[in-house]
Design a protein that fits this description.
The protein has 128 residues and is mainly beta. Helix content is 5%, strand content 38%. The protein has one helix and seven strands; from the N terminus they run βββββαββ. It has a four-stranded antiparallel beta sheet with strand order 1-2-3-4, with no helix packed on it. The protein has a three-stranded antiparallel beta sheet with strand order 5-7-6. The radius of gyration is 18 Å and the shape is globular. The chain starts with 10 loop residues before the first strand and ends with a strand. The relative contact order is 0.15.
């Protein structure tokens, strides 16, 4: 059982594809990351990132003549899985205030007061 206090000690690190199989099926492609808590040898959550073109029907060709988004290189995260004991109800993050509209468009809402990290203003955003 993962204790709630341990989640504040969460460590995220690159992992091998084989280390993802405790929580989901094996996929040798992409870049894999695991979230670890001190009491567990295996990750309690995993996510994989793949560099692939964004499938926009109107993307056409970019300035280099290649198919895909005109926005440049795109990364897709998928295959996110958590251990069943990690019964999280809310997803949240610290977001730069200047980028908060990007998060709003994706369904996150701000909460709490704004704050500074060095000289950059941030807000906390969440999704239930």
């Amino acid at each position: 059982m993962v204790e709630a206090a341990e989640t504040s000690l969460l460590r995220i690190t690159p992992i091998t594809a084989e280390q993802t199989t405790e929580l989901r099926h094996l996929d040798k492609h992409g870049y894999h990351f695991g979230a670890f808590v001190p009491s567990q040898d295996q990750p309690v959550a995993v996510i994989s990132v793949f560099f692939e073109p964004i499938p926009l029907p109107s993307a056409g060709t970019n300035k280099d003549g290649n198919e895909g988004s005109h926005l440049g290189i795109s990364a897709r995260f998928r295959k996110f899985a958590c251990h069943p004991e990690m019964d999280a109800k809310i997803l949240w993050c610290d977001a730069r205030l200047s980028s908060s509209q990007w998060y709003r468009k994706r369904g996150l809402i701000p909460f709490g007061d704004t704050f500074l990290k060095e000289s950059v203003e941030y807000t906390r955003m969440k999704m239930d």
